[in-house]
Amino acid sequence: MRRILIISIVSLLVMVSCVPTLYALWTSDPTENTAISTMNGEQALPKIAVDSNGFAYVTWFSTDTGNYNVRMQRLDHKGNIMWANNGILVSNEPQDTWITDYDLAVDPSGYAIVTFSDIRTGFSNPVAYRVSPNGTMMWGPTGILLANDSNFDPSPQVCTTQAGNSVFAWESCPDSGNYLIKLQKISPTGQVLWGDGITLSSTGVDLTSPYLFPAEDDSVYLAWHTQTGPYYAPNRGLYVQKLDAGGNFLWESDAIVYSPVTSGPIVYLQTCRDDAGGIVFAWYRSTDSTHFQSYVQHMDADGTMTMPTGGAVVSTSTARLHMYPAPAFLPQTQEVVVFFSEQDLNQNSRGMYAQNLDLDGNRLWGEEGKQLIGLSMNDYLLFTADGKDNTAICVYQAAVFGTQDTKMQAVMLDDTGAFVWADSFVDLCTVQSQKLHNVMTNYYMGQWVAVWEDLRNDGGDIYAQNIQPDGTLGVVANQPPVADFTWMPANPTTQTVVQFTDHSFDSDGYLVNWTWEFGDGTSSYAQHPTHQYSAPGTYAVHLTVKDDEGVDGTVSKNVVVSSSSSTFIITIKPGIGLGVSVNFKNNGSTDVLGEPWVITVHGGFLGRINTSVNGSIDIAAGKSETKRSGVLFGFGALSITAKIADATQSATGTQILVLTLVKK
Questions:
Q1: pTM for the whole structure
Q2: How far apart, in whole angstroms, are the C-alpha atoms of residue 182 and residue 609?
């Protein structure tokens, strides 16, 4: 008997030994798919997270040794398995005979962060691991224990910040008293940053089910449920706070997604992000103990709810049930498409619907939404969704009535509600078998990737399949890289060292080589080279970049180099006064942008001074600019030297002594 405490799901699994061959690359055949793990025993509850280079980490629980071990695999964006077949072992610490939910994220350095609970201490406590791209356990072979207490600590969550740290949150349930939310923060090197951790509590109220979302810099959003009433019919409210780098609440009051309701429990929650740091929440609840209604709410980055209080309903129909909503944000239209299950009041007939809402909560596809699949005895469930431009994709399971035979399918709609693909619905997997716990990536490298647990062979294996925006499966056709660069200063001279900066990119892979030709017979293979020209002239600089598929991208730009000896005229105005004034005149025929200059001052009878002030200057052809030192103090003889490019001018005189120069 296998119990997975996610949404109170209980499944009976049969153990049979049957191991198919692992496939390399994404297949275009929905009868095959890519096998992530086909080990003996049960492979369950997959998660997937993608780094900025398009490499995906997949984790799951495996009973290959009888214990619920945690394993991990890494794939490139083409579906190539990067580690050994069936992945690497992350943890074989003792687990209970049942498992709770867990979480996976990728930090800015491309390392995987996975957190789960085990019973190594004799109690259920959360633990965290950081895994490198080559499979090394960066926080040690046993990870970092986030808590060591006698409480029941299930379903830890993690998000990584832009600063590279990892923030964890989990529900902590003592034998008596109210449930708590606990948090901890860990640096990339494994340093525990929040001491004994942060605890959220509320007298007489249980705090449950935390969620974490990255914000800017080193801050995060924390969402959690407050809960009262019996466990089988709790009254839940959802609240959000923003935490700074030290774990302090930044908002004066908690943002309320929905207040506790007494008419029926909140039993489901899915989220997605908008393109401005905000969060979209979707959920369903019972409105009268029998009728289920789905809602959506949008919170902007400052914690303001933009839709009606309590959320906007996706359908006003009272003759149907609306369940399992999955939201997708459309960045091009600033709208939210929600896919949901439509059912009759007895839950005997089921179909699939969708609704589009603007950020004010107005329903755009009619009061009852758009019918995608009419009601029948078949079932459509476990929706996951994502938005791209003005389209929304949903991956879901389609089950045949009276059997456990389930297909994986996808559908895409545009912002008008029209089907994007000619066939409307595309099969990701046509193998007739029970499927569980499907998850899906956001759009990356020209595709989405779905991962699920599949009982096609034995007690459960992990399979994956990609799908492209045009509805096709298989490896995404390689896009050539785009070469681009800039240089500083913009108008160099023969005495200037030019800094070239690469701005090339590859939309569906990564760059592996840079070749620079500077136009004077010299070259470089550095990504950001420097170069100095020995003679004035116009030089065609070529940059060629190569991507991981061996495809080149090239760009050429002209760099005009002048002889600086006659370009600048410098006039120094020393004497008694409050500062040193230096006039730089561009006596050439071209504008100068970002040209470095420096003024140095020596002397003074109160002590020997060797101080300089410097910066960069923009001067149009034939124009001049004056730079001045800061306040001068004391008397004495000064030696002043000003320099720009290869033009130098010196002067001496007696005036107020310079102690400190401040650039103006």
A1: 0.77
A2: 58
